[in-house]
Amino acid sequence: MRSLSECARRLTADRGFAGFTIEELCEEAGVSRRTFFNYFAAKEDAVLGFPALRDDDALDAAFVAGGTPTAGAPSADLVDALLELFIARWARMALTASEAERVFAIIEQEPRLHSRILQLVREGEDRTIALVERREGLAAGDIRAHTLVHVVGTLNRVVAEEFLRDHGDAPPSIDEFADRLRTRAAVVRELFG
C-alpha cells in the first residue's frame, strides 16, 4: 500500500493529478488494477494515502467495549480512552515529515485533492463521533460526543504538525507522540477544570 501511495505522489508531482491513469499508476508500481482497488477506492485516495478499508475494527471495538456510562454521565475514562484511540491510529499511520510535506504540496496544487481530504476528515470525525455515542449509549447527534471528538481531534492535529516539524524523517516515536498529546489534553482539562 505504501509503495502505491509513494508512486501516486511521485506521478502527481511529475505530471499533475490528471496526467496519469490508474492503469499507468499500477504499471509503474508493478501491481494489478485489482490489487490497487483492494487498497484504495480512488486515485485521490492513493495520492493522499487513505486506504479504502482501514483495519481499525479491533481498535474501534475495544474502544466501544470499554464504555461504562452511569445515569446519563459519560464513563470516567472516556477522554483518556479517546486519546488512546487517536494514539493507536497515529501509530498505524507512521507518517514522516517528508511524506507529509509531499502530500500537502500536492494538495495545494490540486484543488480536487483538497476537497477530497476535507471529505475524508469529515467522514473520520463522523465515524469517531458515532463510536463515542455507541460507547457511551448516547443518542445520535449528542453534542457532547461531537465536542469531545472535535477537541481531541484538534489536539491530535496540532501535536501531529508539531511532532513532524520537530522530527523530520526520523522514525516516529509513538511514545513521544502519546506524551505530547496527553500533555495537551491535561492543559485543556486544567483550563476547563
UniProtKB/TrEMBL annotation:
Q: Which InterPro entries match?
A: DNA-bd_HTH_TetR-type_CS, Homeodomain-like_sf, HTH-type_TetR-like_transc_reg, HTH_TetR
Q: Extract the PANTHER family matched here.
A: HTH-TYPE TRANSCRIPTIONAL REGULATOR RUTR (PTHR30055), MYCOFACTOCIN BIOSYNTHESIS TRANSCRIPTIONAL REGULATOR MFTR-RELATED (PTHR30055:SF238)
Superkingdom of source:
Bacteria
Q: Which UniProt keywords apply?
A: DNA-binding, Transcription, Transcription regulation
Q: Which residues bind DNA?
A: 21-40
User: Boundaries of each HTH tetR-type domain copy?
Assistant: 1-58
Which protein is depicted?
A: TetR family transcriptional regulator
Q: Which Pfam families match?
A: TetR_N
Q: What is the lineage of its organism?
A: Bacteria, Bacillati, Actinomycetota, Actinomycetes, Micrococcales
